[in-house]
Amino acid sequence: MPPNMMTESWANICRQCVTVVADVPASILLVTLLATLLGLFVLFFLFLFIVAPTPREPLPEEKKYRTLAKDGAITSPEPLPCWLDALDAHKTAATPPQIEPAELFMSVVVPAYNEEDRLAGMLEEAVNYLEHMYGTLGRADENDIKPGPVSTRSMRKRKPASNGQANDGPATGSASDRGWEIILVSDGSTDRTEEVAFNFAKDHQLSLHPKGYAGPWTPKAQEGVHIPPGTIRVVNLTHNRGKGGAVTHGMRHARGRYVVFADADGASKFEDLGKLVTACQEVEDAGGRGVAVGSRAHMVGSEAVVKRSKLRNFLMHSFHMILWLMTPPRTATVKDTQCGFKLFSRNSLPSIIPYMHSEGWIFDVEMLMLAEFAHIPVAEVPVGWREVGGSKLNVLRDSIGMAWGLAVLRAAWSLGIYRQT
């Protein structure tokens, strides 16, 4: 058939279609349009319901931890304290449930998947700071203080300390103005991650002059610091859950008045933890709720960023644009949502952790969204950061995955598939 005849044939068909449609009453056309849109919405909702991630329940063995006894022996698995289980148990009570009081000042959650090569350096920098700031070094006169849980509500009205320490001085005699713990969550690791952690803890616990390890911020190894027994707890997840799942699991079992999660590579400068504590104390609301997020936004244009590949920088800026378009107003103003260095006050955890769904790289954004939904103040704090080799992030694949995860996450919360109930 010649082209001109084919064109004329299609034109006739189109004219006939227009004539038929024109003869249909407007009310029927409107009903048809609405039914089509409704059908598409239902199909989209069902699709979203299927693809929206649902976190798996922890296995019984994953709710236990191992640590070192005073003699340096690895303990048998012991039950992890869980403030969330205790909170759920009291929901039927007449009075509103409250999170259990803190037992110490700082809990550090470290998600680790096959980190045998990078973990020791990070732990060295962490315990050195934690023991000097929140431990027993330089505070021998407080050793006679008897431990005991203390409510966080009495702490929040004090003037924030400039160095990230507890606002309560030694005269208070409270246990949660001192003390720290590291909860290492081995996310289904198949290498020597747990062995490295136990060896590190054993050396620093038994020896008065522990061997030091070089880290990203301490290139030259120096003598380590002596740490108290049981300060490093190792939790093993039987099956890999992803970074978000490991962080959430660890934060369910934190005992600190403040809880921070930090990447196992030590890329964030751990000494900047004091900045996060101070910022969190400054923004805490009347309920003692506050969040402080480490930020690398001040490094844009620095040598560390400029030296990255053009693809990586392009994907970074594209992801920031997607975040700005798809997240709630306050979350969209956070310049760096993905820095693995975020601190939460204990009283903020019940509004965030029980409602987490994302277990992948995008979990940081969900935490900030939940904080916004619960009207929890968030402070963004510039922190030191260095590129550390050995990253398991595939820039192209994981960037696409994060964009997809963010779209699903935002839609699921907007359409009521996820709820804070």
Automatic annotation (TrEMBL):
Question: What are the start and end residues of every segment in region (Disordered)?
Answer: 140-179
Q: Name the domain of life.
A: Eukaryota
Where is it mainly found?
Answer: endoplasmic reticulum
Source organism of this protein record: Penicillium canariense
Residues spanning the membrane: 28-51
Q: Record keywords: Oxidoreductase included?
A: no
- Family affiliation: Belongs to the glycosyltransferase 2 family.
Q: Which Pfam families match?
A: Glycos_transf_2
Glycosyltransferase 2-like domain mapped to chain residues:
229-285
Protein name from the UniProt record: dolichyl-phosphate beta-glucosyltransferase
List the catalysed reactions. a di-trans,poly-cis-dolichyl phosphate + UDP-alpha-D-glucose = a di-trans,poly-cis-dolichyl beta-D-glucosyl phosphate + UDP
Listed InterPro entries: DPG_synthase, Glyco_trans_2-like, Nucleotide-diphossugar_trans
* GO process annotations (BP): protein N-linked glycosylation
Could you say which EC number(s) this protein's record lists?
2.4.1.117
**What membrane topology does the UniProt entry give?**
Single-pass membrane protein
The record's listing under CDD domains reads: DPG_synthase
